[in-house]
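Sample intake sheet
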Amino acid sequence: MPGFERLTVEEARTLTRAELLPRIEEEQKYWYERIHRCQMKPGDDEAFRTFNRILHVTADLGRIHDDTEALLQSRSLDEDYWRKPLGELGLL
């Protein structure tokens, strides 16, 4: 069924957020279908937890606050957020 490869933590460490977002969107569709069609199998729970871990690190909700504060204080935004691999940023 998947027309994609599941993300691994090791791979996610080598990718930037800009590279990860399309991959996350595809995998998210896959998991949505499996869960809503009651097609989860033994072992899927670990793969789903890995996906969620990558998702939550990539889509850093605290970033919205930090970027808003920077804009309000006329500070520049951190370009590394989108351009550096997560591993280089010390994430995951």
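Comment: The chain has a mean pLDDT of 90. The CA atoms of residues 27 and 34 lie 11 Å apart.
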